[in-house]
Amino acid sequence: MAKRGRPPKLKPDEQTLALLAGLGQIQCTNVEASAVLHVARETFEKFIGTNENARKAWESGKEQGKISLRRLQFRLAQTNAAMAIFLGKNYLGQKDSFDTNSTVEHGVSEELAALLMQHDGNSRSLPVRSNGVLLEHDPEPVVSPSSEHETP
Fold first, then answer.
1. In a domain, 37, yes or no
2. 86 located within any domain
């Protein structure tokens, strides 16, 4: 008795297998490949899962695509420093290193200290620089407005 039901949308003929290998080479997703083949994603995945030749063509195409991409990256690394750095980090375990033990000196110029003194009267707590050199000074006590009116 003849098999009943709907004929399959995908057949493992040479044309379909070549198309699967090509789609795999450019790293298409299952959704993208099913769109190219005009079938639902589920139909595509079932076809790949049940047909060994289709699965081999798809997987072989994906691996060939990775090889081509790697070859291109190595060729590009000969003239592109960013690609050479990327490959060094990914294949050789190289990494960027940052010095986190550096010291930053903070200070203000004499002019800025004078401006701050005019503005709020409290520049004594700020270190002062003169010609790039940090000046040492004896801090004078800060007199608050409320302590000026107190009697001893």
1. yes
2. no
